[in-house]
Amino acid sequence: MLLVNGLGSQMVFWPVGFCSILRDSGFDVVRFDNRDTGLSTRFASSTVVNPWSALLGQGKAAPYSGEDMADDGFAVMDALGWTSAHLVGVSMGSALVQYMAIRRPDRVRSLACISALVRGNALKTLTQLKYGAVARLARMKFPDTIQGQIDRQVAIIRTMTAVEEGFDESWATEVARQAVERGIDDSAQSRHLAALKKSGRAVDPVRIKAPTVIIQGIEDPLVRLDAARNAANSIRGAQFLPLPGLGHGIGANRWPDIVATIRANADRATDPAPA
Which CATH superfamily hosts domain 2-128+187-267? Predict the structure, then answer.
């Protein structure tokens, strides 16, 4: 099972405990850094620095596309010797695993998309988001120091966590420290969004053949519930699971439900569809 993370995020944000439960459910689990994050290949841009400008198509063209990022996932699978895999994507990662299923259906057994929305033009994307959490984060100021970078990552995790989940400050601080030590470039978020904008028309969910489930936190502070429901409706045969007490991502309080749903969806898979 290949885990694909979200916007500007690193593999360390997939909790080890969550990966262990997946392993205990019968999966060989691999997580990796998306390009432009952590220990992966890094890029630079002096023009695209505002994520919303990137989403709207303003600024310098992206140095890579969503298809390139999807192919990175296949490159990881190649290095592992996997001809096919079950895919789990969270947030932006849910778009990337859909790219993968469309580009190489012969290599994708099943899809689980968490905190997903329907890909489309910028206006369509903007109508699927909530802005309260984004506004709160935008008002926060952190010093340009190592500790300031750590505090900023902790604040992001806290903001995306539902109240019922219970914020694990110890875990958030440790994973933020790891991420900062491995390397964080805030402008990578802009390049990720620009890459998805560049490849928006390439995603036609009707073409997805793998068994798919869309998992959405009802308390998600970023993605509207209807957006995730519409994402499920756009994929033939996809199942939709709204979870109370879950924010944006994979709250530990709902790990058993999330893993059970992923396992059940994977069990619907037969052989991957031909290319």
Answer: Alpha/Beta hydrolase fold, catalytic domain (3.40.50.1820)
